[in-house]
Every structure is written in C-alpha cells, then in structure tokens.
Amino acid sequence: MTTLSDAVAKRRTFAIISHPDAGKTTLTEKLLLFGGAIQMAGAVKARGEQRRAHSDWMKVERERGISVASSVMTYDYNGKTFNLLDTPGHEDFSEDTYRTLTAVDSAVMVIDAAKGIEAQTLKLFEVCRLRDMPIITFVNKLDRESRDPFELIDEVEQRLALDVTPASWPIGMGRSFLGCYDLLHDRLLLVERSRDKKGAEGESCSGIDDPKLDELLPADAVAQLREEVEMVRGLCPEFDRQAYLDGTMTPVYFGSALNNFGVRELLQGVADMAPAPRPQPAVGRLVEPTEDKISGFVFKIQANMDPNHRDRIAFLRLCSGHFKRGSKLRHSRSGKTINVHNPVLFLARDRELAEEAWPGDIIGIPNHGNLGIGDALTEGEELKFTGIPSFAPEYLQTVRPADPLRAKHLGRALQQLAEEGAARVFKPTIGADWIVGVVGPLQFDVLADRIRTEYEVPVHFEPTSLHTARWVECDDALKLKRFVDSNQGAMGTDHTGAPVFLARNAWHLDRAAEDNPDLRFLKTKEQI
Ligand code: GDP
Q1: Pocket test for ligand 1, best of 59, 143, 258 (most atoms within 8 A of CB)
Q2: In angstroms, rounded to a whole number, what is the distance separating the alpha carbons of residues 411 and 427?
Q3: Hey, is 35 helix, strand or coil?
Q4: Within this chain, do residues 249 and 284 fall inside the same structural domain, yes or no?
Q5: Of 223, 254, 273, which marks where a domain is finished?
Q6: Ligand 1 mean position, distance from CA 27 (Å)
Q7: How many domains does the chain divide into?
Q8: What is the pTM (predicted TM-score) of this model?
Q9: Is the ipTM above a cut-off of 0.90?
Q10: Taking every annotated instance into account, which residue ranges of this chain make up the domain Tr-type G (predicted)?
C-alpha cells in the first residue's frame, strides 16, 4: 500500500517557463514521450503546428479548445510521478501563467541558445523569484548556430542574479554539434546515438581525461572540451542542492529538444534535484504535504468548455492528505461541504475519473460556479492559502450589450467570467455600464467572443478615460466608508463587492493616496 510520505516523495509538480518560440511545446512533447504518453505528445505537437498557422486570436481560441486536456499532464518516469502544468504562451494571458506558477514546486526555464534571455523569460522568472522557486535551465537549439556557452551562462548569472552551474557542457554547436559532456555523472552523450526515439544512455567515463573520449570524438573537439570543462569547473561553483532549492542557484543543461537531445538528462535532473511537493503557506501556518487531512486550493477555472453544458472545471492543487473519490470537503468561501464525487485526473492520455490523488497532484472538479480562484477545500479546517494573486488590470473598457434588453444576461456573464478569473469586472457606483479590466488587450477580443457565443449576448467594448483601478483597504472601517462616500464618482465594486478606486489618471491616484495615508490602494489583491 502506498503511504502518504512515499507518494509525496515520488512526486514532481513543475511548469516550463520560456519566451514564445524557445521550444516549450517541443520540449513538453519530448518529455511526455519519455513518460510513454505518446498520444498526448501528438496532441501537443498538433497544437504547436496549428498555433503557427493562425493569428494570435485564433491561436488563443484553439488553445482553449484543447487546454483542459493538456493544461495538466501527468506521467511516470523511472519511479517518479511528474505533473507538468502548462502555461499559456501569449503574454496577454500571463495572469493565467502567474497563477499556475503558484501551483508548482519548481520550474524548468527554456532558453533559445541563439537568443539568450528574452523579455518574457525575464518576466516569468521574476514571478518565480517571488516564490523562491527552484529553477533548472535548459538551453535549447544547440543544433543551430548559437551564442558561446560561456556567454550564455554569464548572461543567466548577470541578468537573473543567480549562481549558475552547468550540469552538462556542449561539444560544438550548429552543424558541428556533437553532443554534451555530462558534468554531474561523467558521461559522454553523443547526438548521433540519441537519434532514436528516447535517446541513448551515454558512455560512462572515468573523467574528462578518460582516453575513451579520444576514441569517440575528433581530436580537436576533445582538446576543446577538456579545456572548456577545466575552465567551467574553475569558474562556476559546484552544484549545491540547497542553493538550488532556495532558488539562488540554477543548474544548466544544454541540448536540442527537436533532436531528443539532452531531454533524458533534463528529466532525470528534475527527478533527482527538483523538490517533492513543498509545504504551502496559509494564513497562520504552513501546510505540510504529509499532514493526514486533505487540503488544496483552486488556482484555475476553465468554464464553458462545452457550450451546451454550463460546465466549469476548477483545478485544485492538492497540498496535503490522501484524496479519494467521494471525499467530502469543506469549501472555504461558503463554509459548505462539497462531495467530490466526479473528480477528473489529467492523465497524459486523456481525462480520467480520479479514484485517488496525492499532494502535488492536480484534480479537476466539475462545478456550476461555486468554486472560485483562491478557494480552499479542506477536511474541516478553516484554511486560507496565501500568495494567489489577482492583478490590477492595465486596460479598462466599458462594455454594453448590443440589445439593451440583454443587460441582465450580460451582468450574469460578466460575474461568471470574473469568478473564472478571465477578467476583472467593476460596477461603478454611479452609472449603468460595467467596466472590464484586463492585463493584455487581446483579452477583450476573446471576452467579446465568449460573451457572444457562450452567453448569447453580442456586446460592444468601448474605451474609457480611466487610467487604472486599485482595490482600497483600510483597517479602520469607518475611514474606508468615509472615503467611499465622498468619492462616489470614482468608486466601484469588484465582483465580490470589494471597493475599488477607479482613477482618471496617475495624478488622481497619487492625490487620493496622499490625502488618505491610512488607506491602502492595492495593485494586486489576494483572492479570498
Ligand atoms: P514554444 O513557442 O516555446 O512552444 O516553441 P515551439 O516548441 O513551438 O518551437 C518553436 C520553433 O522552434 C519550432 O519551429 C520548433 O520546431 C523549433 N525548435 C524547437 N526546438 C528546437 C531545437 O532543438 N532545434 C531547432 N533547430 N529547432 C527547434
């Protein structure tokens, strides 16, 4: 029988972060191949191809279409169970990505060897850093002309302020890319031998001076390899697991996902180095994964996958306990008990009914809108997990139904979309229009389309003169009330009824903050 601590020890829940086109989809596909999830790997690939063939907007829609199946991929490799959480590629949907990162214990950062650190890599890295997330780096596309590997590791070190230690070292690049030397296990990995589906094991060596290397590699390549390895070992610190777990050191693998090269080593690296499910912070205490009682939090909602059924799936990250189908759990927000009788486990092949799940696993809970992002499910305890952010929108528009008689329907649609986390929705205290806020402007197009197709309300979005929105909090309820009452023209509420200040411009916001030093004007608000 599996014990809780065994199940926890063998789990690795992680996400891949990268700039678009660095090779995340390709790497995901290859990682799944190793886990025997070939069918799913095909789907991921198809998705990659479709994406390139369509506009951004189409791409987003298409991603939604298959994203329930592929947003969590669970597979086994070498005695470990991996939960790989997918993150949306387009930066306008980065909010989704941020939330997904709250549900993983570590990340793999993919970098294009010709480009180095790119804008989106940096942004996502910063989010990981906020959580001291351990990160393994994979430098991809070594089969192309790349930047010098010393320059690349230097860039990671400088721009991310991380200690860097290569786990493997490339031998040549582009057309003359021969393979890598595995610095952690003293093994020679050759590209030509890894062409078969799963890549070869590699040749064990007694060290970088092993004469075997002279037999297997051209003389000039061996000479260069020995010289570079000596430099690397002199320049870079040794791998320090604690520093990696603390998020201050990243081991770097080199490879080519397209050629299956370096993927096995990366996967083994995640198995060996990456943390098992970590304790999750909650108000007042840390929740240990090995606690007997079940607990978890919702980090993502996917709604209306099937327009004929108003179904929603809440993605729950299990934080502790052994979950079994039919478990009765307390829902933090309503205080009600939920009988989870039809949970979905995201096995790589397909959705399957989950009979059981362990800490680190993600289960999908079909529901009709009662579960929201940030909600906790527990076996009775009143828990509130922290660190699940809601972002102040950077783009605000008003929304109106094309047919004024559909205003009520629109209100309902907006409420549901806000609960799903697809947008911020504000009701100004004065005036009839709703204000919708998003992080990336492409989200407006998707919202208009969803409101039309899923709720049958054609709508118009129109620009506003508003600059930004801030949640307003104050420890003194009376002071807050006074502010709200005297600023009615600039106040509204979000979908939970929390007060929001709608600023006309930066000066308006600064002024309000200066005049009311006891109030907090918050850019992000933790979900309750
Ligand atoms: P994503 O946007 O990060 O998911 O990137 P994709 O996996 O879709 O890859 C972007 C492009 O780079 C595609 O054309 C891939 O075929 C290509 N690609 C990915 N990995 C490699 C690699 O190791 N070598 C080469 N030459 N191309 C690659």
Answers
A1: 258
A2: 10
A3: coil
A4: no
A5: 273
A6: 8
A7: 3
A8: 0.80
A9: yes
A10: 9-278
